[in-house]
Amino acid sequence: MPQPKEIFVKTDRCVGCMSCMLACAVEHSQSKTLFGAIAEARAPKSRLYVEWAAPDRKIPLVCRQCEDAPCMHACISGAITRNEDNIVVTNADKCIGCWTCVMVCPYGVIGRNMDTGKAYRCDRCPDREIPACVSACPTGALIYETVPEYSKSIRKQASQEFARAEGE
């Protein structure tokens, strides 16, 4: 099985512009355009959240696709499953709106759609090669890679910092 890609967050790069949230909402709108989404009767929902962290940080939070996903185990209607791409998904037709998934999510990234009475979450934009939030991030705070690719980039960065420190 190939390594699945994950959305990683480089918190030091986030400036809190909310471009990721806007792109997510537009991608999950009926029209898939900004102006079309604004005019829709049911406002499209972002599945990613940017939270303020004292004293001056902005932190994007998105479903971490937990290996042992508590939301999936807690869902009493069987609406939350893992698909063939290893993505935890919510089947809105099966969701009964009990919010148990919301209560057990350690990251608080499952939303409640008041219009439909259903839970929603990041679905990694299945119709796109790269999730909309990642594509929209102007600072590169969101990265879509496999764990080995991401870890390698972190090791490379750390080794360059060591080399630079030794050279001083």
TrEMBL record:
Source species, domain of life: Bacteria
PANTHER family: ANAEROBIC DIMETHYL SULFOXIDE REDUCTASE CHAIN B-RELATED, PROTEIN NRFC
Keywords, alphabetical: 4Fe-4S, Electron transport, Iron, Iron-sulfur, Metal-binding, Repeat, Transport
Protein name (database record): 4Fe-4S iron-sulfur binding protein (Ferredoxin)
Pfam family, one: Fer4_11
Organism, as annotated: Desulforapulum autotrophicum (strain ATCC 43914 / DSM 3382 / VKM B-1955 / HRM2) (Desulfobacterium autotrophicum)
Span of the signal peptide: none
InterPro entries named among the record's database cross-references: 4Fe4S_Fe-S-bd, 4Fe4S_Fe_S_CS, ET_IronSulfur_Cluster-Binding
Any GO MF annotation of the entry: 4 iron, 4 sulfur cluster binding
Domain 4Fe-4S ferredoxin-type: from-to ranges: 5-34, 86-115
